[in-house]
């Protein structure tokens, strides 16, 4: 259990730190729809593999932590809950696809879904 929590916190903390750097050096749209989704999927899945814990559960912990951060930063509760739901679904996709395509294929597929989701959210806000 401690390894699972460590993997989730490590992936979320790393993403939080690296995402800050990315957002300072790239446009928000490019960062949110291309770079950050790939980074987050890599960090979540790599930490699960590194600690030999459930890919799905690490994604859930990541989603919980991202939701808490979003809520504390003034994002509404609906968006915070969506963080948990979205990362949980991405974890399910990654864990299932890893069986068929290996870890790297699963990361790539989850990254594409994550990029599409973020693109949809940004597009929806624009109109």
Strand content: under 5%
Helix/strand structural class: mainly alpha
The main β sheet shows up as: none
Number of strands: 0
Q: Low-confidence runs (pLDDT<50, min 5 residues)?
A: none
Q: Average pLDDT value?
A: 94
Count the domains: 1
Number of helices: 4
Distance between the termini: 43 Å
Helix and strand element order:
HHHH
Quaternary structure classification: single chain
Descriptive account of the structure:
By secondary structure, the chain is mostly helical. It has one domain (2-126). The chain is built from four helices and no strands. Helix 1 runs antiparallel to helix 2. The longest helix is centred in the last third of the chain and has 50 residues, at 77-126. The chain is globular, with a radius of gyration of 14 Å. The mean pLDDT is 94.
Keywords:
127 residues; mainly alpha
Topology:
Blueprint lengths: L1 H24 L2 H23 L4 H18 L4 H50 L1
What is this entry, summarized?
The protein is mainly α and about 130 residues long. The protein is built from four helices and no strands. The chain has one domain.
